[in-house]
Amino acid sequence: MQYRTVRSPTDEEEKELDQMMSRAVGRVALRAQMISLSARGFSAPEIAQIHDCAEATVYKWIERFDEEGPPGLHDRERDGRSPKIDKEAEEELRRLLESAPPEEGENGSRWTAPRLARHLKEELGIEVHPETVRRALRRLGFSWTRPRRRLPPTDGEEYQRRMAKVVEAIGKVGTETTVLFEDETEIKRFPPIRRMWQPVGRQRAVDVPSNNEDFAFYGVVDVLEGGVYAERYPKEISEHTISFLESVLARTTGQVLLIWDQARWHTSQAVSGWVDRHDRLEVLLLPPRSPETNPIEDLWREMKRAVAACLERSLDRLEEACLQFLDRQTPDDILRIIGLSAV
After folding, report:
1. Can you say how many angstroms the Cα of residue 216 is from the centroid of all Cα atoms in its chain?
2. Strands annotated E in 195-305
3. Contact 184, 216 (CB under 8 A)
């Protein structure tokens, strides 16, 4: 599962965050630490675990920083005035959030709480603090979350075309052809925190490494026979992709039908040229931005759930644990995990 992280701080904001962490009062320094961890790739659940607070608290300060930068991490001034978001203001907020800011003459891409508060003051004469706007929006059923991407209609046609080509190619292969789905996954040193049995009232502590190192696992799964093969690389680049393909061809005989997504390290000129020089290998591309079409994604998910949760391990130990998990799976286990078992 992908968790929302903070936007990338500018160089000036990073300096200000460092100053806040070392000089600000306790709770402000704590908020700056949350933002710094999020910017380094730590998820909200991980940060909440580190600071023993609610995930909602982490998301609150991520939202505040996204909108206002470091100044937004300070406490608000409390003037004791009652909220002024009445029914008219609520309807105006609903209307605005159904439109884009440029439609209202605003030079911005999103409706932030400060921008909404300014609009209410200018258009309705209602002066409220941005935090009051945030509370009103939550009360009205809105949340500060990422929108989803909507593919244009032509991509829908491409999805159908590419999947039809994949199905047709697999249906035509003979016994001498190996059909492989390939993908990569990142293994991070910081352990994802999942539910576990613990004594009541005694929450187990999970060590936080000094930095969240990671590596890339390249892998293929044989969707006809249930075989799986994986190798560790520092990151996903064309050079490592070619190296992995060389290993795959060395471990197989006959023709190989390889199916993968459209990652740049799959479609680069270097990789395409290498593929063209190897007659044993035929490559098909899956539709763009469609991880659900690649069955090895289910295998990665199960592997991480089994061996990469609730334990802080070195990268070498993580690699060993992942390979042990894959080695223990029978071909029937693999087919069952990726959803292709006949049972």
Report:
1. 15
2. 214-222, 228-233, 255-260, 281-285
3. yes
**pLDDT digit string (tens) for 46-96?**
888 888 888 888 989 998 898 888 888 887 655 554 457 888 899 999 999
User: Is residue 193 a contact partner of residue 206, using CB atoms and an 8 Å limit?
Assistant: yes
Q: What distances in angstroms separate CA 167 from CA 111, 124, 173, 183, 267, one per listed residue?
A: 44, 59, 10, 18, 21
CA distance 48 to 93: 31
What are the counts of helices (DSSP H) followed by strands (DSSP E) for the chain? 14, 5
Q: What percent of the chain stands above pLDDT 90?
A: 38
Tokens 């921008």 locate to 115
Position 235 pLDDT exceeds 80: yes
Q: Phi and psi dihedrals of 157, rounded to 5?
A: -65, -40
Distance from C-alpha of 57 to C-alpha of 49, rounded to nearest angstrom? 12
Tokens of 223: 């969707």
**How far apart, in whole angstroms, are the C-alpha atoms of residue 238 and residue 197?**
43
Residue with more model confidence, 310 or 337: 337
pLDDT at position 218? 97
pLDDT of residue 15: 85
Rg (CA), the chain: 25
Q: Kindly report the backbone phi and psi dihedral angles of residue 215, in degrees, each rounded to the nearest multiple of 5, phi listed first.
A: -145, 170
User: What is the per-residue pLDDT across 239-249, written as a single tens digit (0 to 9) for each?
Assistant: 999 999 999 99
CB 315, CB 215: distance < 8 Å: yes
pLDDT tens digits, residue range 324-334? 999 999 999 99
* b/e sequence 274-289, b meaning 16+ C-beta within 10 Å: bbeeeeebebebbbee
- Distance (Å, whole) CA 212 – CA 192: 11
Which residues have CB under 8 Å from 166's CB, separation 6+?
Answer: 259, 284, 286, 293
Distances (CA, A) of 331 to 11, 173, 290, 301, 338: 50, 20, 25, 17, 11
